[in-house]
Automatic annotation (TrEMBL):
SUPFAM superfamilies: C-terminal effector domain of the bipartite response regulators (SSF46894), CheY-like (SSF52172). The modification 4-aspartylphosphate is found at residue 434. Residues 383-499 form the Response regulatory domain. One of its GO terms (molecular function) is DNA binding. The chain crosses the membrane at residues 21-41, 47-66, 73-106. PANTHER family: TRANSCRIPTIONAL REGULATORY PROTEIN DESR (PTHR43214:SF42), TWO-COMPONENT RESPONSE REGULATOR (PTHR43214). InterPro entries: CheY-like_superfamily, HATPase_C_sf, NreC/VraR/RcsB-like_REC, Sig_transdc_resp-reg_C-effctor, Sig_transdc_resp-reg_receiver, Tscrpt_reg_LuxR_C, WalR-like. This is Transcriptional regulatory protein DegU. The gene is degU_1. GO terms for biological process: phosphorelay signal transduction system; regulation of DNA-templated transcription.
Length: 596
């Protein structure tokens, strides 16, 4: 943006800094002293020369308070003095010209300084004629002025850069400290506080199996609850929301890390990936990316490409990393890492899946993570009623669910009768009911809720997954049957699915149903069913399938088949639908295990 006339005038007369002002004053005093001493030794100054010297010294001393305007005033006064006969006897005011030229060069006004010194030399030629010695001395002084000025400019510019870098370093240090505090707070929030609640729930489930140990376990449960409460003010103090997690940032960091071994990370993901994911999905996905990249850093062959596929579909985040395996791995001490086994445990605790396989000199790691998406609007928040006779389980589950995006526990009850009263007072979308409760058990409560509020999705909770209770629940047309030890992220995902009209079951109830199903011999053994579906694919889909399970990008598949990327994406969607998969990672690993 161009400056206004007023702004340019302000810049023209803004005083120089203190150091420059001191230099001008000292030079002015030096000119006066040198001139007086010089004439005291030779010819004394006459009055006109003395007055001219005084005027020039005062104008030079005052020049820095007017910035360039003051410099130009002194230059004008010096040039005007050159037209008088008195100036011939004054030798040292020329130092002011050299000082101004030096200051201009320091301020990166080198062309103006060059014109100034050229004008000075011409003025001296007009005064003294073409004397070679005078011309040589003036040119030499000008050259020395340039040398000194550029040296000072480099020094001052270097000092300024150092100050800027120091300030930037301070800012970056402050940002890093804030990021560390935010990550620590997020770790407390997303891991420790939640795990303490899980410990309470798991111990309560254990007591239900072994009531004789209740007295010994009760202090541990109380300690977990107290610790969880102590963490809350610590988390608030550390400013949990100081920075939002980003999967794209994790990818960038991993890209830089892999470059240390000349590994090129090729990423296939949407530009707005962070906008498509929940906070928890971003955190777990970022952990996968970093650990998979660490694994590639240890085992990949130097100078090769590492491919990362990130897709979002069907309420899930799918990530797959593929790299060529080198002959030797790096020392673990150099690469560190969380470890794939621990990563698998972490992902499965969130209701996700991790699988990895080595095939044809390639290492393939795939993860599928629940993704409810970004936090819904307030009008889309799922309102949950939670009924459980155990206060620890009730409070623990309520606290865990309230931490999930888009879920609000609007009421809690300690038995079925109280749950029905809360139902009459609250707007409820999903009811979580303990199967075994006093006064009115969960199954009877579910039956009454179906009569009073058929729109409410009822999900049963239990410590024991008895087949009889599961069968009775299904007979009541409840939306789901879950065990209390299910991870909170997975529970939240299942609540959303129940709210959307799906039937939901936890891992152990699902096994009961699967075993019942298998007892009738209605399932194909091993991978026969998968192979049969693959063989039934049309030729164009089978050709695409063969390239897809090689972990090739869509662009490469399109180039090999002579098709457009849009057509390849359409074929892949058809393959997913035909084979019953939603992401290429799990499909690739299943295909490899099936012998393709």
């Amino acid at each position: 943006m161009r400056k206004s006339l007023r702004e340019r005038f302000t810049d023209l007369v803004r005083p120089y800094s203190r150091g420059y002002r001191l230099a001008y004053v000292l030079t002015s005093v030096s000119v006066a002293v040198l001139e007086v001493v010089s004439h005291a030794i030779s010819t004394p100054l006459d009055m006109p020369s003395f007055l001219l010297l005084t005027a020039l010294c005062v104008s030079l001393a005052m020049a820095p308070w007017l910035n360039r305007a003051g410099d130009l005033l002194y230059v004008g006064a010096f040039a005007a003095a050159g037209a008088t006969s008195c100036s011939v006897s004054l030798a040292f005011p020329a130092l002011g010209m050299f000082l101004i030229a030096t200051v201009w060069i320091i301020h990166h006004r080198t062309p103006q300084a060059s014109l100034l010194l050229t004008g000075y030399i011409l003025l001296m030629l007009l005064q003294d004629g073409s004397q070679p010695s005078r011309i040589f001395s003036d040119v030499l002084l000008s050259a020395v002025t340039f040398a000194i000025a550029f040296a000072l400019r480099n020094f001052i510019d270097g000092a300024a850069r150092s100050r800027r870098e120091l300030e930037e370093s301070k800012v970056e240090t402050a940002k890093a400290a804030a990021a560390v505090r935010a990550k620590l707070a997020a770790g407390l929030h997303d891991t420790i506080a939640r795990d303490l609640a899980r410990i309470s729930i798991s111990l309560e489930s254990f007591v239900a199996v072994h009531p004789e140990l209740s007295e010994e376990i009760a202090p541990v449960v109380d300690l977990a609850r107290v610790s969880s409460r102590r963490l809350k003010p610590m988390i608030a103090e550390m400013n949990l929301e100081a920075s939002a997690p980003s999967l794209r940032t994790a990818v960038k960091e991993s890209t830089l890390m892999l470059r240390s071994r000349e590994l090129n990370l090729t990423v296939h993901m949407s530009d707005d990936i962070d906008d498509l994911l929940s906070r928890q999905a971003i955190l777990i996905g970022s952990l996968f990316v970093r650990e998979a990249a660490t694994n590639a850093l240890k085992y990949a062959r130097r100078g090769t490409s590492v491919n990362l596929f990130i897709e979002v579909a069907g309420g899930e985040l799918s990530l797959m990393m593929v790299n060529e395996i080198g002959e030797r791995s790096l020392n673990d001490a150099l690469t560190g890492g969380f470890g794939l086994v621990n990563l698998q445990s972490h992902i499965e605790a969130e209701g996700g899946r991790l699988s990895f396989v080595s095939d044809s000199g390639r290492w393939i790691i795939n993860a599928v993570i629940p993704n409810p998406g970004k936090e819904p609007l307030m009008s889309e928040t799922i309102r949950v009623l939670l009924a459980d006779d155990d206060v620890i389980v009730r409070e623990g589950l309520a606290d865990l669910l309230n931490q999930q995006d888009g879920i609000d526990v609007v009421a809690v009850a300690e038995n079925g009768s109280e749950a029905l009263r809360e139902l009459s007072k609250q707007t409820v979308d999903v009811a979580l009911l303990d199967v075994d409760m006093p006064v009115l058990d969960g199954l009877a409560t579910a039956k009454e809720m179906a009569r009073l509020r058929p729109s409410v999705a009822v999900v049963m909770l239990t410590v024991f997954e008895h087949e009889e209770s599961l069968a009775r629940s299904l007979a009541l047309n409840v939306r789901g049957f879950l065990t209390k030890d299910i991870p909170s992220a997975q529970l939240a995902q299942l609540i959303r699915q129940a709210h959307d009209g799906y039937l939901v079951f936890g891992p152990r109830p699902t096994r009961i149903l699967a075993n019942s199903y298998l007892s009738f011999g209605k399932n194909d053994p091993g991978y026969d069913g998968f192979r049969e579906r693959v063989e039934q694919l049309p030729n164009h889909l089978r050709t695409t399938f063969d390239l897809l399970i090689q972990a090739l990008p869509n662009k490469t598949i399109a180039r090999r088949l002579g098709l457009s990327e849009a057509t390849v994406r359409s074929y892949i969607s058809e393959i997913f639908a035909a084979l019953g998969y939603t992401n290429r990672g799990e499909l690739t690993i299943t295909a490899i295990k099936a012998g393709y």
